[in-house]
Amino acid sequence: MSTETNQNNNPDEDFLVVENLTTTFNTARGPLPAVGGVSFRLGHNETLGVVGESGSGKTVLSRTIMGLQPRTNVEVGGSVRFDGHEIVGATEAELREIWGTKVAMIFQDPMTSLNPVTKIGKQIGESLHVRLGMSKDEAKARAIELLTLVGIPSPEERYEAYPTQLSGGMRQRVMIAIALACNPSLLLADEPTTGLDVTIQAQILNLLDELQMKLQMSVILVTHDLGVVATRTDRIIVMYAGRVVEMGRTKDVFKDHRMPYTRALLESTPRVSNPSHTRLKTIPGRPPNLLKLAEGCAFAPRCSRATEKCSQERPNLEPTGTDGHYFACWNPLDNQSAPVSSSTGSTKEFGEDNVRS
Ligand SMILES: Nc1ncnc2c1ncn2[C@@H]1O[C@H](COP(=O)(O)OP(=O)(O)O)[C@@H](O)[C@H]1O
Ligand SMILES: [Mg+2]
Questions:
Q1: Is the CB of 24 under 6 A from ligand 1?
Q2: Cα 265 from Cα 124, distance rounded (Å)
Q3: Which secondary-structure segment (H or E) carries 95?
Q4: What is the reported pLDDT for 334?
Q5: Domain carrying residue 228
Q6: How many CB atoms within 10 Å of residue 5?
Q7: What membrane topology is annotated for this entry (predicted)?
């Protein structure tokens, strides 16, 4: 946990403030706006879910927030501040300082981030040695402590193992250990359990929950799977075509969503208690081509409620009246039409009583 409030420009500010963030790739076929004007805030100790279909811009948003986007052929606009420190336009040295002490990220596939020919203990120790200047012995002791913290059995033995000798779940635990090595105030997890089997997924997600409480971190949990965020986040932002189309407290987004896309996502998500033979709805049509985004709402071509206005004018985020709950839609669903009362599914199946408020 960072206590460097002396460097904070504005101590009253939320821990993370993202304002009108844009990420545009310069491609051979023209500019591709992968993130189009995203704004949100995250407090200390809060957990935020970022959800959306594949291709909706979650990973590009995550990498841009972390300052990990390469600088060639990409233009980033807007602002990202951690504890008052600006990321957009920061120098390599400034970013390193922030990565070392304030924020860390874990990715979907640990194998692409772990070095297959280096023992895992050494990989954890390296970041302690390089970033925190620990001696070799100190780093080893701390690495074993971290392996224990993330629930790896026989940590002394595993310290000597190569990544390929561990299961997928264990490798993700190692990645979490590496991410936690520098006591970050924010852990950003991009699809941390996609590709793992269901039991292991639950174990990793529970571990993240536990660690958040123990270490008092903020967490951003990025996933295409709404079932993952239902019980594990305080707030959610829903992304479509690089923009936020709905945001609010988790409870409000699940029970009182207004954006038809949010409902479509909910209806296409396997429920925790859903029998596996229950047929899920798929969202009709395809995600839009970001190189040819139309003027209006990007979801309009797939939306059963779309009118002419939807394809002509883009709706901005409007407040629902419930604290912090916003949606971008010209023909929003009303409160009663939430799928709680529908015959096809119910937020109850997500563990309604457990959905965080
Ligand atoms: N380096 C890149 N160059 C050009 N387009 C990219 C690049 N990286 C991602 N994109 C595009 O940005 C959009 C958002 O991608 P991504 O953030 O990976 O989606 P998600 O994580 O939600 O599945 C996609 O259309 C993707 O093709
Ligand atoms: Mg992604």
A1: no
A2: 37
A3: helix 92-101
A4: 86
A5: 12-102+184-354
A6: 9
A7: Peripheral membrane protein
